[in-house]
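Researcher: Next sequence.
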Amino acid sequence: MTSKTRFPDASGIYMIYSTINNKIYIGSAISIRERKSTHLWALKKGTHFNIHLQNHVKKHGINKMMFFILEFCAIEGLMEVEQYYIDAINPEFNILKKAGSFIGYEHSEETKRKISEKSKGRICLNKGKKGRYSKIIENYERGKRTEIYQTLCQKY
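Model: Next structure:
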């Protein structure tokens, strides 16, 4: 996976593919170009959020990964189209099998213990206050995905 290929600044569904074992990661992005760059940077730095991808790159190298655009689609339809590909392909590198969500993910007991230890004595300054993303969360809970993406696009 190299950064030499110029990808369009468009929304869509992408795939990261291992030439070693044919394993796949499926993702969606508002900007495919930016998302590819973010993946590449994190994998090279060793800080990628997906431990499966990170371990693969650590073992085999970044050059054994390929980045493909599967489909361009409107921002409003990203999650639905990504879910279609996740269901159809069953990608091995995807930790979560639900698009754009942490539903189904559960921390290990060891991780929960570490989070608890790290949080002890910490003062929560936001307790009882509405966060700056509260409108996005409220819209999401009401199923208004279009407004979520428009709000995020305006921020970034």
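Model: The CA atoms of residues 115 and 128 lie 21 Å apart. Confidence is low (pLDDT under 50) at residues 145-156.
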